Amino acid sequence: MEDFLRVGIITSTHGVKGEAKVFPTTDDKGRFKSLKEVFLLNDGEKLPLKINGVKFFKQFVILKFQGIDTLNDVEKYKGGELYVLREEAVPLGQDEYYIGDLIGTRVFTDDGKLFGILKDVMQTGANDVYIVRVNSEENQEVLIPAIHDCILDVDVAHNKMVVRLMEGLT
Question: Which residue ranges does the record assign to the RimM N-terminal domain (predicted)?
């Protein structure tokens, strides 16, 4: 499991005073109000950034970082991913998982056969959808809804998921 969890992506600048417009990748964008620091993934290095201000605009979070005071200062970080330490992450409920912990999980069918590897999670609103790269030479991807009828077991510690493939998914 990763020590860091992604909470957002800097999409652009906001204004001329060094604010960053951030697309949140967390379920609760209000969590930014309580954050004091995030880590910016920049050229393979995690740069700590202290948060001096938080505002909200539509689906975005506007962040002001200490020491970043101009449009040009924040411009170079566009596209950068923001992370928090795992211990600062929002606690999970039952049958909830951090997306970062699911990526790369081996997916097995309910009859025990390796089906593929979970490559990404699509958040649709109603329920998440798991994108699984199937064990085939064509690198085919299958979309599996993250519902109890399809997802029978998730074992993050052992990097394993068991699914029931509903008719029409494969």
Answer: 7-87
